[in-house]
Amino acid sequence: MTEPGGDPPRDPGAAAERTRLSWRRTSLSAAAVGLLLARPAFTPHARTSAVLAAAAAMIIWVTLVALTYRRHRGLTTRPPLADQRTIIAYAVVTVLLAIVGGFVVIDGLVVTH
């Protein structure tokens, strides 16, 4: 509660905690997407392109987990560090995951049974 004419109370740890949680949620979402992208590689007659896409998705997911771990370490310092390179790298790798996802969808549409 704020005092009349006073500043609202600050909790610098709350913002860092919310950021940590959002990075964890994003990593969990990336894991789900990576597993969905790998799924076509485990069919009985998987094409080479499906196996390559699954491998790329898993490499990208491991990269995202490593970047998340790096960001978590930066958030544990006082004050939390704003690491722009990690954030930009995470965005680029997320776009790569989306591109692999698009490739899997297009490749799945091209397959004739």
Chain-wise SSE layout:
Blueprint: H1 12-38, H2 48-75, H3 84-110
Largest sheet: none
3D shape: elongated
β-strand percent reads: under 5%
Number of helices: 3
Query: Which class do the helix and strand fractions yield?
Result: mainly alpha
The parts where pLDDT drops under 50 for at least 5 residues are none
Total tally of structural domains: 1
Radius of gyration: 20 Å
How many strands appear in the DSSP assignment? Answer: 0
Helix content: over 70%
- Round the mean pLDDT to the nearest integer and report it: 82
| End-to-end gap | 65 Å
| Helix-strand pattern | HHH
Structure description:
The chain is mostly helical. The protein has one domain (13-110). The protein has three helices and no strands. It has helices at residues 12-38, 48-75, 84-110.
Search tags:
mainly alpha; 113 residues
Summarize this structure briefly.
This protein is mostly helical. The protein has helices spanning 12-38, 48-75, 84-110.
